[in-house]
Design brief:
This protein is an alpha/beta fold. The chain is about 40% helix and about 15% strand. It has a 7-stranded parallel β-sheet, sandwiched between helices.
């Protein structure tokens, strides 16, 4: 069964690497028109070299006004994947986490998503265009992780943002969902593991299948949520974790 995405227009934030970059490639393969947004210009340049049809957008989502101005200048879209986030956040105790640091994470992972959806959704509604938004959240919106207060609470906030937008955009035939992956084997994660980080063991030890997903295993569910195959799916948090959250322990 085909996803029938050919010719549809999507914005992917955090498109320079990891899940975002692989999603851009997958959508391009489906003959979509893809706007790839990233804070750093160099990854965008290499992406366009690889896929000339991709439209690069270079802006920092933490800059509310600059983001708004850029997105208001592009055409009406069929949807957005809010994938941008701050990776490799330093571990900080809840007792020592500064307001300045928390504000930075909120600006990117909370206000960045809200701002993007506001601008794109208004244009879609004015044009009478149905569509789909997908917010890339995390299993850490459901469970706590040592030293990661800003990451965990912003992902939890993103899940509620998903529900609120799904409620208010539903009458305009615009669906909104979260995708909540576990640790994913991006290039950055693979590098950390190769350098001796036990990060993968932390997650696989709680996962019944004993492994964490490849990037493609997260990209495919996102594409399903963007497509009309998920036409009655909205306001959900789609966990992709191999059963991790359902398991207290994997063996006695």
């Amino acid at each position: 069964m085909s996803l029938n995405l050919k010719g549809k227009k999507f914005l992917v934030t955090g498109a320079g690497r990891g899940i975002g970059r692989e999603l851009v490639k997958a959508l391009n393969k489906e003959e979509c028109i893809v706007y790839a947004l990233n804070r750093s210009k160099e990854p965008l340049d290499t992406l366009v070299q690889e896929l000339p049809a991709v439209v690069p957008l270079n802006v920092d989502l933490e800059d509310w006004e600059a983001t708004r101005a850029l997105l208001e200048s592009i055409e009406v879209l069929d949807g957005v994947v809010n994938n941008a986030g701050l990776a490799d956040l330093p571990s900080t105790s809840v007792l020592e986490c500064s307001k300045k640091f928390m504000n930075k994470v909120v600006d990117c992972q909370v206000f960045g998503a809200i701002n993007t959806m506001q601008v794109v959704a208004k244009k879609m509604i004015e044009a009478g265009r149905p569509g789909s938004f997908v917010n890339v959240s995390s299993v850490l919106s459901h469970v706590a992780y040592p030293g990661q207060l800003p990451y965990c609470f912003t992902k939890a906030a993103l899940d509620m943002i998903t529900k609120q937008f799904a409620l208010e955009l539903g009458p305009h035939n615009i669906r909104v969902n979260s995708i909540n992956p576990t640790l994913v084997l991006t290039d950055d994660v693979k590098r950390h593991i190769e350098e001796g980080s036990p990060l993968d063991i932390v997650f696989t030890s709680r996962t019944p299948g004993g492994r964490v997903p490849e990037v493609s295993e997260v990209v495919v569910p996102i594409m399903y949520l963007l497509s009309d195959m998920s036409s009655m799916v909205s306001g959900t948090t789609q966990v992709v974790d191999g059963g991790m959250l359902s398991s207290f322990i994997t063996q006695l």
